[in-house]
Amino acid sequence: MTNDDTRTDEILRILANNGRITNLELADKVGLSPSACLRRVQELERSGVIKGYRAVLDQAALGRGLTAYIGVGLSDHSKASQEAFERSIASAREVRECHNITGAIEYMLRVEVADIAAYKTFHTDVLGTLPQVSSITSYVVLESPKDERG
To answer: Residue 38 sits in which domain range?
Structure first.
């Protein structure tokens, strides 16, 4: 790995942890001049490596203190069934992520709700009403000792 690659990796690591760091601070941390650092960051943005910057929200403070991962199996594996499921999930405000995956089931969802009662309502009134769904397996998050999502 070249020194340039190491510096780029360090820039990305720092920005992933603190997207609001000033260019001057970032340049100092990675050992580049401010102008060279800014050029490198702008190139990473232009090339699509850096897709954007966002705020990290405290879900508990927003009243979404319970996170669950949900494995969803579909009864029909057709494209139409998948598209119908994805359209339904896109409008469910509790679903923060939806991933089409390989393996025994078709989808993995990350859901954020206020509490277990709110989760039961989502499970019953949203997932339980979708005709494509044949199986639901829930994994409630107890703690997240490492979470690098932005």
So the answer is: 3-46
